[in-house]
Amino acid sequence: MTHNVNIPGWAGDIYAWLDANEKRIPQGGTYLEIGTFMGASLAHIGTLRPDIELIAVDPWLDAPSQGYCGPGEYTQIQNERGGLFPAFLWYMTRFAPDVLKRTRIIRGTAKNVRLITTVDLLFIDGAHDVDSVLLDIDVFSPLVRTGGLIAGHDFNPTATN
């Protein structure tokens, strides 16, 4: 599956994994993504599976990115679009509008979000420090249906923040 390279982010290595595992979500199932950033992986899975419900949870805080290329990697995009959340909406509206229309968007983190739903695939890619990942697992993993899948991206066991 070809992904949308027009949406910036760090999802390049996630696409192959999503391609290999998207069939594990049943017809009409639910995908919950913790840490959506600009929406690259969300757009990818939503394009692969137009039949599933999508839930995106992210605080979209306007703080300097600590991206793979160093602090402030996406500062220019944040400045041009008026913040991280407006940038997410702009990229999704422009490059994945059908996905955006069927996504339930929740601004927050495991500290302040409580969902009453069940999901088939939980993908954790929020804050990458130990405490945040453990809290994401603690709060969101009970939502995963029996037989569902919990996965994540680039957890750093040595990170302290």
Task: Supply database-style keywords.
19% strand, 5-stranded parallel beta sheet, 6 helices, alpha/beta, 161 residues, 5 strands
How would you sum up this structure, described in words?
There is one protein chain. By secondary structure, this protein is α/β, with parallel strands linked by helices. 34% of the residues lie in helices and 19% in strands. It contains six helices and five strands, in the order H-E-H-E-H-H-H-E-E-H-E. The chain has a five-stranded parallel β-sheet with strand order 3-2-1-4-5, with helices on both faces. Helix 1 packs parallel to helix 2 and helix 3 crosses helix 4. It is globular and about 40 Å long. The mean pLDDT is 88.
Short description:
With 161 residues, the protein is an alpha/beta fold. The protein is built from six helices and five strands.
Question: Secondary structure elements and their pairing?
Answer:
Blueprint: H1 12-21, E1 30-34, H2 40-48, E2 53-58, H3 75-81, H4 84-95, H5 97-101, E3 103-107, E4 119-124, H6 130-140, E5 144-152
Parallel strand pairs: 1-2, 1-4, 2-3, 4-5
Helix pairs in contact: 1-2, 3-4
Helix count from the secondary structure assignment: 6
Give Rg in angstroms. 15 Å
The SSE order reads: HEHEHHHEEHE
Shape summary: globular
Q: Roughly what percent helix?
A: 25-40%
Strand order of the largest sheet: 3-2-1-4-5
Mean pLDDT: 88
Identify low-pLDDT runs. Answer: none
Number of strands: 5
Summing up helix and strand content along with how strands pair, one would put the structural category as alpha/beta
Strand content: 15-25%
Largest pleated sheet? 5 strands, parallel
- How far apart are the first and last residues' alpha carbons, in Å? 35 Å
